[in-house]
Every structure is written in C-alpha cells, then in structure tokens.
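Office hours follow-up: a student asked to see two folded examples consecutively, so here they are.
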Amino acid sequence: MIMKQVRLSQQAKDQLSRLKGKTGIKNWNVLCRWALCYSLSEKTIPTDILIIADSNLEMSWYTFGGDYYEIYEALVKAWCIQMNLPTDDETVYKYFRLNLERGIAHLCGTGFIKSINDLVELSVKEK
C-alpha cells in the first residue's frame, strides 16, 4: 500500500466538483480513478510540481481503489517502469499524486467532458 489517505488540492477538488455536475457521477473516488487512468495513458511524465493537499477532500486508499485498490498501485508502478523511474514507495506515491492531479486538470480542462457519455468515449479512443 503506497499510502493510507488520499488528499487533494483545493484546485483539484473544485475541478472534480465541476466534473461531478457534468457527468452525474456522485462519488469522488470514481472520478479520481478515471482521472488517474487518463493521466497514466498520456505516456508523458507530469510536471514535477509541489502539490499542496489543502482541501478537505480526503479518502482512504481503500476507498480510492475500491475492491481493486491493488490494481491502481500496480498500474502506477508499471507506468514508473515504462518511464524508467524507480518503483520504491516514495517515487510511486509521488507519481500517483502527480498523475492524479494532472488527470483531474485534463478531464476538467478539455471542455470535451459534458456528460458521462463523453467520459466513456474518451476511455475507448485510441491514442
């Protein structure tokens, strides 16, 4: 387990709130999973910025991943390997956070996501 709690920045929380309204997805963790996977699919390393977890949006690692929380950790580790990065807990945690925040920003910033159908279409597009 790479972390006990997932806490987001206020900016990410605000962006997720907008996505919740557009998609009708009620649970933060579900949108966060979409965002993480979207960012991991980008095949680039997110900008290494300091993320200040200043929102009150917090969930346990088990809530984030649900019954499949181990798969999300494995996905981030596999991404680290693909990017020639170490897979120690500190690095995996860092890039989980960077990819999650980037994914939220990208999903919110595309202007493409106007409904849950747009989110599904995005997931099946070939890159």
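And the second, which I mentioned at the end of office hours:
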Amino acid sequence: MANPHLTEAEKNMQKTVEVVRKEFASLRAGRATPALLDKVMVNYYGTPTPVNQLATVSVPEARLLVIQPWDKSVLPEIERAILKSDLGITPSSDGSVIRLAIPQLTQERRAELVKVIKKKAEEGRVAIRNIRRDVNDAVKQQQKNGEISEDELRRHQDEIQKLTDKYIKEIDQLVSNKEQEIMQI
C-alpha cells in the first residue's frame, strides 16, 4: 500500500525539478531560444503581459530572435520592456518586427552564468530535501499515532530517500547539461 505522503512528496519533487528546468531555460547560453523572453513583461494597456502573449517569437537562426507583434502599436512597449529587462540585449526594430541579435558570450559572462546555475540548482536541491524532511516527519507522526508499524516506517523512509536521490540526480543532470551548453564556444 502506497503512503499518500509519498505520492504527494513525489509530485512536489517533480514540480521542483520542473521549476529548476524553467529557470535554466530562461538563462542565456549564447544561442537564441524563445524561453529567454519568458520573464519579460510588457506594459500592455496598463497590464503587465508576457511577450509571447502579444507576439510571435521565432528563431530564424542560432543567434537571432524575431518578435512579430500581432498589434503593431505595442511594438515600442515591447522594445522598452526588453531594454529594461536583465537580458543585456539591445532590440532593433524596423517598424513591424523586433530583431534581437544574441551576442557571443565572454568567458567572464560564462563563468557568471555557471555560478547562477549552480545557485539555482542548490535552491532546487534544498527544496527537495525540505520535502523529504516534511514527509519523514509526517510518517514518523503516523508511527507515533500507531497508524503504521516501525517496519513500515523504515520502509517509507527508504522510499523517501530513494525519491530524494532520484530527483537530486535529475537536477544534477540538468546542471551538467546547462553547464556544457554555456561553456560551448
């Protein structure tokens, strides 16, 4: 019989890994990807709106993003939002589309990005360990209340540890992949 705490823990750990994956996708690695614009919010008639809800974002070549707004009047606002964002990319517009040329990363910037990646990964690992701690506490409480035996407690703790190891390994794999992507010249 699966413990409901274990099921909940696995769901939360999967969500944590997904959050880390999204964080990594929004980091610039020297190649163009629409995910770079995920955190850029445009002031659209007074409402902060993501770029991908106002325009088509395409990647015609490895180092170029093209943003084509559905409503041409929002073009200056999109440009302003990109300039204000922490992307460090200057948009160029021809009145109907915005082009973002992704510059080559310097070695210094690559090292900074690797630090950011490791920091975000560690936050993910800590979140997973916190989930493990909470579930272990809940299972210990069940044992204290006489709902499960000591053997079941140990078995549940082993399963929780296996889940924790699995998801931390997944985060480590994400870090390794992203680091290789950034260090590629």
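Two things to take away from it. The radius of gyration is 22 Å. The first strand starts at residue 41 and ends at 44.
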